[in-house]
Amino acid sequence: MSSISDKKRIVIKLGTSTLTHKTGRLNLRRMNNLVRVIADLHNSGKEIIIVSSGAIGLGVGKLGLKERPTDTPSKQACASVGQCELMYMYDNLFDEYGITVSQILLTKATIENERQKNVENTFKRLLELNVIPIVNENDTVAIDELELEIGENDSLSALVAKFCGADLLVILSDIDGLYSSDPHKNDGARLIPVVTEISAYIENIAGGTGSALGTGGMSTKINAGKIATENGIDMVIMNGDNPERLYDLFEDKPVGTLFLARTDIFDCDQV
User: Which residues face 171 on adjacent strands?
Assistant: First the structure.
């Protein structure tokens, strides 16, 4: 197992709760800090791919809705409005650091058929051109995913990591990592620093839902972990409230929960 500091091609998944306030409006200070840190990591030689949630949540705020809609057409409308604002912000913020970004809208179906090679070639060329691709699920057409509420951007980020040949997947959320039980309900819940195998035990403690503006919960992140680790990719779940902790992560300091790609050694003391 190589250390985190040695990882070069990194997929960073940004959740809705990381990017927005509870109102659905952008958390400008945090987004500025995220972009600054990611730009700095990019300048250090890391190849960064961002998988960004937030379009529907931003659309909710932009349209002045009091809560996330439940009907599919309204979700699609929110995604359409919110995606414009999301990419506008990314483009402007990264431009301040002289970094070019691109937008890639995907569906799970797109990257699981014969068109996957075209997507792979696009990512390869963008990275060669020193561009940071910003990926989101195409929520305006991914009707099945919207109706099923499966938090597709978590598993989408793992699939992107898989076909891009990433070394590491980092999921930023509103929780510090995987806990032994729900920390909101149990004061004795402990953070699990390392998971060497996604066992039935790990899946059982990964219950719960996401924030009011997002769809993913810990279970969707565990699903992403299964995709990543089964394809030789380490994954980290960490809190996105302080982007500076990404520096700690890439300096090999313990941050969040690390899911190891190699599952042949199981340490009961760690899990």
Answer: 13, 237
Q: Rounded to an integer, what distance in angstroms lies between the CA atom of residue 239 and that of residue 228?
A: 19
Sheet holding 101-106, edge to edge: 101-106, 132-137, 47-52, 9-14, 168-173, 234-239, 257-259, 194-195
Better-predicted residue by pLDDT, 216 or 49: 49
**Biggest alpha carbon distance in the chain?**
51
What is the b/e burial string over 223-241, where b = at least 16 CB atoms within 10 angstroms of the residue's CB?
bbbbbbbebebbbbbbbbb
- Cα separation of the two ends of the chain: 18
pLDDT for 240: 94
pTM more than 0.90 = no
Q: What three-state secondary structure class fits 101?
A: strand
C-alpha distances in Å from residue 266, one per residue of 211, 261, 269, 271: 32, 12, 9, 8
Indicate the SS3 state at residue 55: helix
Task: Report which secondary-structure segment, H or E, holds 48.
Answer: strand 47-52
**Beta partners for residue 237, in sequence order:** 171, 257
Tell me whether strands 194-195 and 132-137 are parallel, antiparallel or unpaired: unpaired
Distance of CA 67 to the CA centre of its chain: 23
Q: Is the pLDDT of residue 192 over 60?
A: yes
Q: Please report which residue ranges of 27-141 form alpha helices under DSSP H.
A: 28-43, 55-62, 72-95, 116-128
